[in-house]
Design brief:
CATH class of the domain at 13-77: Alpha Beta
CATH architecture of the domain at 13-77: 2-Layer Sandwich
Order of helices and strands: EHEEHEH
Largest sheet: 2 strands, antiparallel
Strand order of the largest sheet: 1-4
Number of helices: 3
Radius of gyration: 16 Å
CATH topology of the domain at 13-77: Alpha-Beta Plaits
Distance between the termini: 25 Å
Structural class: alpha+beta
Length: 95
């Protein structure tokens, strides 16, 4: 049985390089968690880059990275908290 010290929370960070986007919407169409949406903003090329739906829960599958022909989107992950600090973060997020 896992203990408090075994809990590790990974924080995912998604980066969209809006000026590199050509608006193909592959990332939006194929996102399994529907995290990405078409934004209302335009980039300098006149395309709508993707935006992030704050209500969606990204699983950090990195499919958007693989599909983007312009390398305009990428994500990273890293250990945020471990042990009791992670448990406290879970409790805060549940409120």
């Amino acid at each position: 049985m896992p203990t408090i010290e075994d809990i590790v929370i990974l924080e995912d960070k998604m980066y969209i390089l809006a000026e590199q986007c050509k608006g193909c919407s592959f990332c939006i169409e194929f996102c399994p968690k529907h995290v990405l949406v078409v934004s209302e903003e335009f980039n300098a090329k006149g395309y709508h880059p993707p935006g992030i739906d704050a209500k969606a829960n990204c699983s950090n599958c990195k499919l958007c990275e693989l599909l983007c022909p312009e390398f305009a989107i990428y994500s990273t992950d890293y250990s945020l908290r471990k042990g009791a600090a992670a448990r406290n973060g879970l409790e805060e997020g549940q409120q």
